[in-house]
């Protein structure tokens, strides 16, 4: 009875995993299809990969996606961390108000945030393009950094920074040498969330992009109308990179640890 | 130490410029007439009157709410058991499955949705079903992870205690595990329902051009029709409805919590 | 920490990926000296240019072309209003008319356009811009019905015309463009009205015609995806532009093109330079380049639309597209119309079209 139950429960979980991975495998298989069809596999070919590498728009889309994600992550992490530290020393009223407003981008549906930016840029007569996408990404990433750093700040011992100041540290030194090192793990996890949000975004980039610039998601969205197997190739490459990286990062430490244990 | 507090000021200004101002602009547009110049400020309620007096727009809103509601229910019905079963596993196995569940989330949502296009074209499902598959696929991981987090935080001793006191498995689950995992379910609901209501690319990709949800209306009015005032009004209505349903969910949560 | 490492690793991999295959030969041409700019921003319809045109232009003038696409005149117009700056846009006739009225496009330096004599005979003096002060024709065509001869007969079409789109025999087998004006066209024409009507009763009657279609026919709405769908035989009837039909017909012999007896829309799309363009000189070079015979043939062969270039048109209708009726749309039919610019009508139709879609 117990065994049967276990069998059913683990098959249920595997079934859900199948649901998660079936479409991904499907796309991967059809990226090697010789013909354009999405339903009939007519033969093995690498031509869609070749076409993908030859298409400049795709290369540019990949480039912009990564550059925007990296810049947005770095900038929003710096601003978010500095603000969080400032907030922890601020008056309660200011802190509460800022944190409330800070919640808005996280609670708003993407499309509302996006059209807000669109209206803002258009009323400021800003030309939409790389910089407007980047700015929007920074704006919606900072709240996640603050959200991640604030709780850790509350647990910090104020006396350490006080002591540093008493011992002759400048405030900047106290900040960089005492406070920030203690926040390291919270800052890193905030940065990671920011990166994922930016990298995964479509809606906000779509409404804030302009002439001559597209991200991977915008490229896919604008080319789905025709059957375009290069998207299958692009998806496959992205899936492979993500998988390899996640496996390396998760498995390598495990092997190292095992080796250590064996050595002992 | 006090000097550090100044470090929060620039961000307060930043919030005003890039978070508050856009929201005010949406409000301004929603309550003004369409014209070449917003600065003439022709205040009006026409946009809202137009929405609610129409025979079709409220239907679209209702359709978006129901499809998001069903998506959320399906995500709970699938997600809860998965999270529960995974939470019972050994630590190593848990880490493995969590990795399996998180991995697709690193792939752009648009690409994940696109992936279903070919697969679904084998079957003759109706558009609603296809859109629902796309939504469940995109949002289910959030639900599983949220519930899993709250289940794994659960104090094992409570379960042992309940069993020692004579509760059987079902009773233990209903009386101890379930109530304590409700916060996870609630935050899962937020993470599924909210994007599901406002989604516009999932219906567009999987439902064909004819499947219109409230998000598509907003996109249409901003991108093709070019009536930003009405588009703003629709998005405002959408945001209000979402806030309202979140409020109701939180109230329900308190009620469930209160019964203990 | 290890996750951070993961992100860095992934970025490095992706950037290498984006970087490879990036080496392109360039000529010695100095675009800055000649045109004052080396980047051209082009805003064109999706699937509306030859496979090699952009690359050839870039090589010839040693420049970079940033290419974006749109699905409808309205989408393009909204983008311009929203502040997007392009050097070349390709609006249709009625949109050119509006852009001239609103001074959103600039007069062309016709002296610089050495190939201007190549414009197709039928487009030498278009009603919206008779002297080509603002626009140079790119493609032309009509709106009609592409049908699968294994499912629908010519006789049926000739008997019913546009009304075949309400014939429940073809329920679930029809496809129409997701474009407001082109969808009101069949409805208005089927009811015997003008495509440029300003009569609210007529517009409402057409709206009800479309609602009936939405409710009883299970139509699919979309854009370019119809090309592949029709080639694969997935639909019986589709409202398409003649050029799309020509492309479909060249890929699937069972497909034919029919222009209904109630009349249809004949249109042309033209290259224009927006008033706020940053590289107007380079834009002129682009227009002139597209008026070269080889380029025009390359463009037209790839997309299937009727060329706006006289020699290319003649050569292709006897060569590549010989026997494909859709490549040479009918001319001079009394009930055929060109759309006229009418802000009020456009706004009404856009609104009603959203509602038709939502009603399904």
Model description:
The complex is a heterotrimer of chains A (264), B (260) and C (360). Chain A is built from eleven helices and no strands. With 264 residues, chain A is mainly α. Chain A has a domain at 57-230: Orthogonal Bundle (MetI-like fold). The longest helix of chain A has 34 residues, at 230-263. Chain B is 77% helix and 0% strand. In chain B, helix 6 (127-152) packs across helix 8 (169-198). Chain C has two domains: 32-140 and 268-318, 3-Layer(aba) Sandwich (D-Maltodextrin-Binding Protein, domain 2); 141-266 and 326-359, D-Maltodextrin-Binding Protein, domain 2. In chain C, strand 1, helix 3 (53-61) and strand 2 (64-70) form a beta-alpha-beta unit. At the A-B interface, helix 1, helix 3, helix 4, helix 5 and helix 6 of A face helix 1, helix 3, helix 4, helix 5 and helix 6 of B.
Helix- and strand-based class of chain B?
mainly alpha
Helix content of chain B: over 70%
**Regions of chain B with pLDDT < 50 over 5+ consecutive residues?**
none
Poorly predicted spans of chain C: none
| Proportion of residues in β-strands of chain C | 5-15%
- Quickly give the structural class of chain C: alpha/beta
Biggest interface, chains and residue tallies? A-B, 78 and 74 residues
What is the name of the CATH topology of the largest domain in chain C?
Answer: D-Maltodextrin-Binding Protein, domain 2
Query: For this entry, what is the oligomeric state of its chains?
Result: heterotrimer
How many structural domains in the coordinates of chain C? 2
Shape estimate of chain B: globular
| Radius of gyration of chain B over all CA atoms, rounded | 23 Å
Question: What is the number of independent domains of chain B?
Answer: 2
Q: DSSP strand (E) fraction of chain B? A: under 5%
Output the CATH homologous superfamily of the largest domain in chain B.
MetI-like
CATH C-level class of the largest domain in chain C is Alpha Beta
Put simply, the count of helices of chain C is 14
- Taken in chain order, the helices and strands of chain C follow as HHEHEHEHEHEHHEHEHEEHHEHH
Q: Could you give me the name of the CATH homologous superfamily of the largest domain in chain C?
A: Periplasmic binding protein-like II
In short:
The complex is a heterotrimer of chains A (264), B (260) and C (360). Chain A is mostly helical.
